[in-house]
Amino acid sequence: MVPFKLILELILSTLLSLGRMFTAYVLSLIIAVVTGVAMAKNKYIESILLPILDILQSIPILGFFPAVLAIFITILGPVTGGEISSIFLIVTSQVWNMIFGVYSSIKSLDPSIDQLISVYKLPLIYRLLYIYIPASRSSLAANSIISWAGGWFFLTSAEVISMGRIEYRLKGLGSFIISAFENRDTVAYTIGLLTLFTIILVSYLIIWNPFTMRYTGVKTLLGFMRIYGVIEKAFARIWSLIIEKLIMAYSVIRGKIIVIQLYFLIPLILLYLYHTKLTLMTNNLYSEITKYGVEFLWALPLTLIRVYSTVIVGLVLSILLAYISHTRFKLGVLIVMLGEILSSIPAMMWWPILLPILRGFPYGVMMFVYLQGSLWYTFFNILLFGVSSLKENILELSKIYGIRGRYYLLRVFIPSLLPSILAGGLSASGGAWNASIAAEYFQVGGFIVDMGGVGSLLYKQTLAGDILGVLLTSFLMSLVIIFINKTVWARVLKKISGYYVIE
Amino acid sequence: MVTMLLSRGDIIEIVGVSKSYVSEGREIKVLEDISFSVGKEFVSIIGPSGCGKSTLLRIIAGVEKPDSGKVIFHLSRKPTIGFVFQFPTLLPWMTVLDNVILPLIASGVQKSRAIEKARTTLKIVGLSEFEDFYPSELSGGMKQRVNIARALAVEPDILLMDEPFSNLDPLTAESLRGEVLDIWLSSILPIKSIIMVTHNVEEAVLMSDRVIILSPRPARVLKIVDIMVPRPRTRKMPEVQELVDKVYEYVS
Ligand SMILES: Nc1ncnc2c1ncn2[C@@H]1O[C@H](COP(=O)(O)OP(=O)(O)OP(=O)(O)O)[C@@H](O)[C@H]1O
Ligand SMILES: [Mg+2]
Q1: Per-residue model confidence as pLDDT tens digits over A263-276
Q2: Dihedral angle, C-alpha A195, A198, A203, A204, nearest 10 °
Q3: How many domains does chain A have?
Q4: A408: which of A50, A377, B53, B167 lies 20 to 30 Å off by Cα?
Q5: Does A422 lie in the same domain as A360?
Q6: Residue B23: CB within 6 Å of ligand 1?
């Protein structure tokens, strides 16, 4: 018999977690639309934000988390501050690819639509509601699948927040499961996990999968179209109400929409600095920086090798799975559904499974965590959008001329997937950098594994509450990532796209 | 001659319009001192590819600013402009009806009123039964009809058309030409002037009252040919053939 109190606790926790996920998703959606449109339509905003987003997507947000947390909690107190920082963390785990999605779909909008806009002088609000948002719908659907998984993956980290020695727990499904695990409460742990799986599964089956299938032409998904239809209708009603109100408001104001976001962090940081009267020891600063720099350079090669081998493994794996799901449709549907669930399982849920392996083979566990943070970008990009964008006429051509096997794979299949391979690969390297912090140093059930590397360095600095160290190390890491993206990665892309020009 | 002048009465006056673009640091002169006026009539503009016809049309529509010169409208109010784009330019996520009412709603027309107007013009182009269809469910010719219906729905004073028939198969193009001419001649809509850009000499001669021939880039007005052939016109009419030959001479 499961105690009634436990059930109540579980329901409450689930609702709270769902509320957090939903709030974070809606926030991400708004940020993605506003930023994406602003970038696509304004050259200055584009030239400033594009490189910044490139970095933000790659740096380990978890590394900044304690700093952000400290800011929010110092200013707003543990309850509100904790709640806001957990939503903030979830947003940072899902917003980047959504921004890029909106940006690229508006960028690729037919230029004659710009003419339509200017000939009939459509005001901004109409452009947003009738053109930019619907135009981004399919890429938002596509990216929502990845982002929603990313959100669940980070949920536990977002609900159990440790800041040096202090730990805050927000009531929620993530913290429920963690607590149950720590208290060795098998019943609570099991029903917690089951609830989590059910919610993840149901949210995919009735929302994301049908949504994606309807708007992107992806077919390899499992979903209940009927139920989704009802949900969409309800949503459409709310949406048209919002549109009506917005247009009414617009006819009253007729003003311009100002892009604020992102900047809201600056006053917060200033406030925080003032609050804690943070004074840097200016005389020691130079030697401090040198110390951090040397540590960083020492750790860098390890992480570099790990990050890029993860990306390569992820790419190879995704392409192979894509080939299998392309040749066997039913198997493909299964693979994708499995991927959706596996990618959503929060990081800490893996520990009970990994714990037994941990003693003998810590290296494998590290690579597993790396992959978990990186593989899904290539997986979804290639399996969903790459495979479904394979051109019918090219497939026919291959059939007619009997192009098969290795030749087909190398000359037809992979080149056709190239755009999604490239898009996925770039995000995956960001994801791998991001994962390094969780992969290289972990502390489970009393024993500590330290694999060295930049991620481990960052994590230890975080644990020690060394904010200066965290900031400096993250900064140096950003420099390395930008350097690699702008030189090596850009060159690889150019070379590959030179080989495979796709009409 | 006298009757022609009387019936014309200037509505649009294009005075010394010039325009250049700067691309990759080099200045490309596109339009050079273009002047002509348009009365209550159907005018075609013809000229070699890339000479600046679309640019000129955009300047008339007020979407683009000329470097010098101006476009004057002799109307009691700001003119309403209908624009038929070279490609249908329909928003794929909206039904036919929603596509047609978009410009109306954006200019502040009540939704019910906008729907009423849209239905009228959809009927004119023969698409009444397709108002709930999405663009992807229409044929190329039907899409172009929606493009035309959208331009007509705003009840334009001036109708501007950028190669409206050039991306259609010959049969569809022919029947759409007939429909546009019918709308124009029957004056069921308050259109005062039509300016049509085209590559097709025959089309220009068959449809319009005057043909304005532009030179290669930078475009200047090379010649204006009056087409004073009574309607209905057919290709076989000797005076039509004569005029076609005459226009060809200037174009090539
Ligand atoms: N926004 C722009 N920026 C730079 N150059 C432009 C721009 N728009 C047009 N041009 C240039 O101006 C010239 C005229 O273009 P336009 O589209 O008006 O030609 P057109 O006569 O309509 O050609 P076509 O018959 O092929 O439609 C072209 O050489 C084009 O490259
Ligand atoms: Mg043109």
Answers
A1: 455 555 566 655 55
A2: 140
A3: 2
A4: A377
A5: yes
A6: yes
